From TrEMBL:
<dbReference type="InterPro" id="IPR011250">
    <property type="entry name" value="OMP/PagP_B-barrel"/>
</dbReference>
<keyword id="KW-0732">Signal</keyword>
<feature type="domain" description="Outer membrane protein beta-barrel">
    <location>
        <begin position="20"/>
        <end position="181"/>
    </location>
</feature>
<protein>
    <recommendedName>
        <fullName>Outer membrane protein beta-barrel domain-containing protein</fullName>
    </recommendedName>
</protein>
<dbReference type="Pfam" id="PF13568">
    <property type="entry name" value="OMP_b-brl_2"/>
</dbReference>
<feature type="signal peptide">
    <location>
        <begin position="1"/>
        <end position="20"/>
    </location>
</feature>
<dbReference type="InterPro" id="IPR025665">
    <property type="entry name" value="Beta-barrel_OMP_2"/>
</dbReference>
């Protein structure tokens, strides 16, 4: 799985020619996640506050249309106060179920007006960490798990505003179409907000 992530990243960001680099815009970005899960197994669990960080490339196709592939590390999951705390010692008020992914969204980017763009497209997500943290406010309490699927197919949509100096702000909603755990009705859902810089 890690080899697949590396290959995708190389294809998206390494296999470019000198002439292509004259037209492509590369950038870095980071921000905050407010993530949870949906489905019949959970009664509206609280969101986990995490982070996202990564790189992107904007490939112009037409005057107001670009393709934007990205590679992001995204910390997701949810917080659940009702998890049976009798099985854990020194439990915080809330227990975090942590699902961290390397996300590879490939987005269509349509400029509505100068600087303001609408983005939407599929996202190919690779699980890199799954654990239950019953002391999320401390360095202890992590319990490694192996229940979630290694791959998730999802989608992303949002808005971005890019300033003339290359800095941008964006907001995005992401959703996992495939089940977090095979044959269960559990799907990832997250709001991502962040800033970045395009070279």
């Amino acid at each position: 799985m890690k080899k697949s992530i590396l290959i995708i990243a190389m294809v998206l960001f390494g296999a470019t020619t000198v002439s292509a680099q004259e037209y492509w815009n590369f950038g870095v970005k980071g921000g905050v996640n407010f993530s949870t899960v949906t489905g019949d197994y959970f009664d509206s669990p609280d969101s986990r506050t995490g982070f996202n960080i990564g790189v992107l490339a904007e490939i112009p196709v037409a005057d107001r249309f670009s393709i934007q592939p990205e590679v992001l590390y995204s910390a997701q999951g949810f917080t659940e106060a009702s998890i049976d705390q009798a099985n854990f010692a020194d439990v915080d008020d809330n227990v975090e179920y942590q699902l961290d992914y390397v996300q590879v969204p490939v987005l269509a980017k349509i400029y509505l007006v100068e600087g303001l763009s609408l983005q939407a497209g599929p996202s190919f997500n690779f699980l890199v960490n799954e654990e239950l943290d019953y002391q999320p406010l401390d360095d202890d309490g992590e319990v490694a798990l192996n229940n979630a699927q290694d791959f998730e197919f999802g989608g992303a949509a949002g808005l971005e505003y890019k300033f003339n100096n290359g800095f941008f702000i964006q907001g995005r909603y992401t959703y996992g179409f495939t089940d977090v755990i095979e044959d269960t009705d559990i799907n990832n859902s997250a709001i991502q907000a962040g800033i970045g810089y395009s070279f």
